[in-house]
Amino acid sequence: MSITADRPTTFSFPAASGGPADIAARMPRRHTVVTGDGMDGVMQLATALQTCGRPLREFSVDVREGVAYSSVTCTMSMTPAEADEFESRMLAIPGVLAVDPY
């Protein structure tokens, strides 16, 4: 006997989701965001990613001394429409030069 066999299980979709179709279209999408503001730009990107409301499956930063550009690579589950919105949202941040989806 499993622990969950004695409890009824229910599942409801979040209010903002489109239901089963939304969940089916959602998949991990990886993006690299390039900034020219060094560590300050990377920290600003990290703050923006925290406010996206989606858990990050992957987050890596590349900041090197003497290199003009820094980058953040992240993976989040999104629908195609959310991925397009993510790109435009990141490009609206001052200092962001490019957003490259994989």
UniProtKB/TrEMBL annotation:
Superkingdom per UniProt: Bacteria
Chain residue ranges for the region called Disordered: 1-22
Biased composition (Polar residues): 1-12
Name by which UniProt lists this protein: DUF493 domain-containing protein
Source organism (scientific name): Pseudonocardia kongjuensis
Source organism phylogeny: Bacteria, Bacillati, Actinomycetota, Actinomycetes, Pseudonocardiales
